[in-house]
Amino acid sequence: MKKSFNIISIVILVLCLLLQFGCGKKISKxxxxxxxxxxxxxxxxxxxxxxxxxxxxxxTEMLFFLGLDNEIVGVTDFCNYPDLAKSKTKIGxxxxxxxxxxxSLSPDxxxxxxxxxxxxxxxxxxxxxxxxxxxxxxxxDDVLDSILLLGKVTGKEEKANQEVGNMRLRITxxxxxxxxxxxxxxLKVFYEIGKDPLITVGPDNFVNDLIETAGGxxxxxxxxxxxxxxxxxxxxxxxxxxxxxxxxxMVSSEKAQETKWDKYKTISAVKNEMIYPVDPDILLRSGPxxxxxxxxxxxxxxxx
Length: 304
Fold this sequence. Notes:
Blueprint: H1 2-27, E1 31-36, E2 42-47, E3 52-54, H2 57-65, E4 72-75, E5 89-90, H3 99-104, E6 109-112, H4 123-127, E7 131-134, H5 140-154, H6 157-179, E8 188-191, H7 206-213, E9 217-218, H8 232-238, E10 242-245, H9 254-262, H10 268-271, E11 275-277, H11 280-284, H12 290-302
Parallel strand pairs: 3-4, 3-6, 4-5, 6-7, 8-9, 8-10, 10-11
Antiparallel strand pairs: 1-2
Helix pairs in contact: 5-6, 6-12
């Protein structure tokens, strides 16, 4: 009888301990802070953020820039900078991420951009109650604001403030240098983003902002959209002083790149041999390398 009583007592004790720890898990909830993202959505962000998935190359660059190397667990197939990004788990493409892979990484935060964010494709992510935060840097100032906001969201506010402060100093220097250039000395610029068909930079986008801030005049800034198809005839008519192209490794061959414009001798940029290959990742990604891109353009325009 006594032995049975002891066994029952032990069983009750074990059950009590299990209930205590089980209840403890239910009661203990991770703290959250509410932030407003680029679309005005109120997003509950866990505190601290421990596992982050990036759904855009420029977002990946911002997160690494903030020193979140250890927290980043997944990036897109196109996230190739910095080098550490190449070692992270790939979640698929920009517009077609692999939802199963993302869920398998157990992120507590997903950072995306509106143009790569499809509610139809990632409905399961929303249902999983993972925090999805959107940034939308369309101008230089937007990049700085996005870095500051992500700094707050991820607990890297001090780092963000310090880095953005340094970036502002470099941007201000470029702007002051540009102010000293007379309007009639500003260079007309054509940026060949796509070769066949010919695609360039129109108004109201990040690259146009870079060109103008660096003191250039984008010859396609009156185009009907941000990434217009353009004709060679229009380039000839607008007569740019400088043409920016993709590096030879990104086109069929270096010879093809040279001869594409070489036959149009009436264009000032061709006549004066001012056709320059530029790394599109630096200029097209609205991320922390914005200052590097700005300084590169200013140097090409006015410090040759």
